[in-house]
Design goal:
The complex is a heterodimer of chains A (about 110) and B (about 110).
Chain A lengths: L8 E5 L4 E6 L7 E8 L6 E6 L4 E2 L4 E4 L5 E6 L8 E9 L14 E6 L1
Parallel strand pairs in A: 1-9
Antiparallel strand pairs in A: 2-7, 3-4, 3-8, 5-6, 6-7, 8-9
Chain B lengths: L3 E4 L2 E4 L5 E7 L5 E7 L5 E8 L2 E5 L6 E7 L2 E6 L8 E8 L7 E2 L3 E5 L1
Parallel strand pairs in B: 2-11
Antiparallel strand pairs in B: 1-3, 3-8, 4-5, 4-9, 5-6, 7-8, 9-10, 9-11
Classes of the chains: A mainly beta (about 110), B mainly beta (about 110).
């Protein structure tokens, strides 16, 4: 599985934007970039995913570099509820029989009131 | 109206016992998973089922036996529990194995 690299931890002030980076220099052309987060004492929760173009949804935006070797999850206005561990995951699309999410160590996001 | 539900939420048991964790999803998904999160918070896939057929078994000891009676259920039975089995176990489901996955709230298993 292609590997992702994320900072271990980040802090941000409440109500400010947060940019969570992810490096994936060995990404293949058919890998989707997925982001999940895990709030304290809960199961992981899907945030967003994309292939090449930037993506927006109600939770966040995903900015993907032109060479696809890095991406950034953007929370536009962080709230205390956004404090969680954020995981950047590459998910192959042409690998039937190997459907799984391979979690790394993620980035622990702390929101400062 | 929980999408992926696991029971029990907490399970404390003695070494050597046999226990089961149940998982049900009401999303109409055809792929279900079991993940284990250890004390260092590392999440790792254990099993994956598609349409009741096992498609991933990530070198899990054969004391762990998943069973999928239908597409909506994936239960995990553990024989001869060991201290190292203590962890949080998460069930998840998705459609087709490539769409977003929905996770349950987890079952915290403590073996004493």
């Amino acid at each position: 599985d292609a590997k992702t690299t994320q900072p271990n931890s980040m802090e941000s002030n409440e109500e400010e934007p947060v940019h969570l980076p992810c490096n994936h220099s060995t990404i293949s052309g058919t890998d989707y970039i997925h982001w999940y987060r895990q709030l304290p004492s809960q199961g992981p929760e899907y945030v967003i995913h994309g292939l090449t173009s930037n993506v927006n949804n109600r939770m966040a935006s995903l900015a993907i570099a032109e060479d696809r070797k890095s991406s950034t999850l953007i929370l536009h206005r962080a709230t205390l509820r956004d404090a969680a561990v954020y995981y950047c995951i590459l998910r192959p699309t042409l690998n039937f029989g190997n459907e799984k999410l391979t979690f790394g160590t993620g980035t622990r996001l702390t929101i400062i009131p | 109206d929980t999408a992926v539900s696991q029971t029990p939420k907490y399970l404390v048991t003695q070494m050597g016992n046999d226990k089961s964790i149940k998982c049900e999803q009401n999303l109409g998904h055809d792929t279900m998973y079991w993940y284990k999160q250890d004390s260092k918070k590392f999440l790792k896939i254990m099993f994956s089922y598609n349409n009741k057929e096992l498609i991933i078994n990530e070198t899990v000891p054969n004391r762990f036996s998943p069973k999928s009676p239908d597409k909506a259920h994936l239960n995990l039975h553990i024989n001869s529990l060991e201290l190292g089995d203590s962890a949080v176990y998460f069930c998840a489901s998705s459609l087709g194995g490539r769409t977003e996955a929905f996770f349950g709230q987890g079952t915290r298993l403590t073996v004493v």
